[in-house]
Amino acid sequence: MKRRALLGALAAPAVFPLGASAQPAGWPDRPITLVVPFLAGGSTDIAARILAERISPRLGPQARVIVENRAGAGGAVGSEWVKNRAPDGAVLLLGTASSHGSNPAALPRQTPYDPVADFTPIALVGGGPMVLVVPGTSRFRTAQELFAHIRANPGRDSWATSGAGGIGHLTGEYMKIAAGGLVAEHVPYRGGSAVMEALAKGEVQYSLEVLASTAAHLRDGLSRGLAVTSLARHPLFPEIPTLNESGLPGFEVTTWNVLLAPRGMEPGLARHISTQVNAVLAEPDAARRLREAGVDPAAPSTPDSTRAFLTAELEKFRRIVDQAGIQLGRG
């Protein structure tokens, strides 16, 4: 799926104008917790904090959205916690392609929730490509150079991701197969910020990480991007080629963020929150800040189109798991 299709094709235009839905009576009557199922500093955390800041004034003069990080198990810890809350709008989740796509696809028996049925989809927030990244001190300047080194030294190098079964892990395994069966040791960490710290310290040789998590390190020279996983180069770093250009024709995997609530949220409340998310994403300043952080704002969405998107993405990741022959707790 192309990046535009990933964030827009399944997200049908909202059937109500921005700002048209009435504020549900009595809501919010307390601070709203927006759970990020990863460590602070990663892509989901960045998007959540921009969203929380910009949506709070839209929810009423007393409204306050507080971001809370509940990291672990590739997003499963925070997602399960939200699953078990009341669907009254007091707790929301910024789910990801890892927590609600790749992890359930790769680790179905270890994922303690159904990524679609156990949640109320509200709205798409954004997404973007992964980046094949190496430490800034690395001698590798291109993806081809890295691949050639790994082929010549099978099993000697290690690579980091935000967790076993996450989108970085599935993308990396898929990349190794597409590059001819590379052999390197996968080292899972607890979030994008931990991955980037490990790279900066030279603990691993490379990573597949979301653009938002790598952007600051790429700008500062702490890390070097060798390729992006979208079919087109990203406007934030147009100098970084695609894997498609780097000897892996047709290679494409992209990530996303989606706002969810526990299953059973009243449809009118879900539509109201969706409307306000769409309004935030339409704000030029919010959209600019998201893009600068490496998160491409999503096209307008509804709860129904968001559910359709989640369903399609889950099936896509299941196909990748099958094609790559990934076996992680599937027996």
Global outline: globular
Distance between the termini: 29 Å
**Mean pLDDT level:** 89
The proportion of residues forming helix, as a percent range, comes to 25-40%
Compute the gyration radius: what is it?
Answer: 19 Å
Q: Helical region count?
A: 11
- Let me know the CATH homologous superfamily of the largest domain: Bordetella uptake gene, domain 1
Total strands: the figure is 10
Q: Helix and strand string, N-terminal first?
A: HEHEHEHEHEHEHEHEEHHEH
Can you identify the CATH class of the largest domain? Alpha Beta
Please state the oligomeric state of the protein chains shown: single chain
Q: Give the helix/strand class.
A: alpha/beta
Question: Total domains, how many?
Answer: 2
CATH architecture of the largest domain: 3-Layer(aba) Sandwich
Strand content: 15-25%
CATH topology of the largest domain: D-Maltodextrin-Binding Protein, domain 2
The major beta sheet can be summarized as: 10 strands, mixed
Low-confidence stretches: 1-20
Produce the secondary structure layout.
Layout: H1 3-9, E1 32-36, H2 43-55, E2 65-69, H3 76-83, E3 91-96, H4 98-106, E4 119-135, H5 143-152, E5 158-161, H6 167-178, E6 185-188, H7 192-200, E7 206-210, H8 211-220, E8 223-228, E9 254-262, H9 267-282, H10 284-292, E10 296-297, H11 303-324
Parallel strand pairs: 1-2, 1-3, 5-6, 5-7
Antiparallel strand pairs: 3-9, 4-7, 4-8, 4-9, 4-10
